[in-house]
């Protein structure tokens, strides 16, 4: 995407503060270590060996929107301009997100604000600053494994000094994403696929490593409000286009009960959270939930994972 309202000089500045942050001594970076939410902050991507190739990068995650969810205690104080630049980036991202969601809706003949509404005013924007160090065995090691993003859209700024890094998959083939100075790359994520009832595809992508130069990137993941159980827009469901994605919590109770919490493992499963009345001034919990252990993989109880909606697993 070009003409996104962010000047080239500003994007250069964004990559510059990112480079400067990662160039700090480790003790300095560790001041921004992952916060108590296990998400915001500095850390490296999980390196899970086994028979998998590794992820080879360092990253700094910072939620920028809604503003009250910022955890400023892990926002870098050096370089000095970091916070200001990130704040400005967040304002531009908000505008860009709205323009893109509206354009996506129009392109499907929907009311302009269909996706904006599904997304909600308080949808989150999480930024991820990443560095992929030089790697002597690019044949063995990914920067990031093939995956799709959980976002509705992801906005990506790539290092203009490194012509190759990100690949996307189409028709079982991998394609290099070109790096165009001044442009941003927009990836559709899982929520775009769900909202559009499968018309938009959540694109599989990966990052390869490089033995010659390190690479930087800044990604911004835009995700619907967590309280919204997002589903396909009604107008996109018809007899020709059956609903591909259902809302788990909207399923009939009998169906949800197929995934009830299990006696031998009360943690994994669907059920409502304990309503502990007791002391009169304590509020009670009022929600439904489905717990499943996902890792380690050999502890998954796959027989109790929902088979509907089809994409759940
Ligand atoms: O660094 C990139 O080019 C993309 C990273 C990515 O796909 C991710 O963090 O989800
Ligand atoms: Fe991604």
Helix-strand layout with pairing:
Layout: H1 8-22, H2 26-30, E1 41-44, E2 58-65, H3 82-107, H4 114-119, E3 124-132, E4 142-147, E5 153-158, E6 166-170, E7 173-176, E8 185-188, H5 190-195, E9 205-208, E10 215-223, H6 253-257, E11 269-272, E12 288-291
Antiparallel strand pairs: 1-2, 2-3, 3-10, 4-9, 5-8, 5-10, 6-7, 6-9, 11-12
Helix pairs in contact: 1-3
Bound molecules: 2-oxoglutaric acid and fe (ii) ion (FE2).
Give the structure's gist in a few sentences.
Belongs to the iron/ascorbate-dependent oxidoreductase family. It comes from Chenopodium quinoa (Quinoa). By secondary structure, the protein is α+β, with helices and mostly antiparallel strands.
Query: What class, by secondary structure content?
Result: alpha+beta
> Which architecture per CATH?
Sandwich
Percentage of residues in strands? 15-25%
Tally of strands:
12
Span between N and C termini?
32 Å
**Strands side by side in the biggest sheet:** 1-2-3-10-5-8
Counting H and I runs of at least 4 residues, what is the number of helices?
A: 6
Number of domains: 1
Helical residues, percent: 10-25%
| Shape category | globular
Return the string of H and E elements.
Answer: HHEEHHEEEEEEHEEHEE
| C-alpha-based Rg, rounded | 21 Å
Mean pLDDT: 88
Q: For the record, what CATH class applies?
A: Mainly Beta
Say which CATH homologous superfamily is assigned: B-lactam Antibiotic, Isopenicillin N Synthase, Chain
Q: Cofactors and ligands present?
A: 2-oxoglutaric acid, fe (ii) ion
The CATH topology is what? Jelly Rolls
Low-confidence stretches: none
Largest beta-sheet characterization: 6 strands, antiparallel
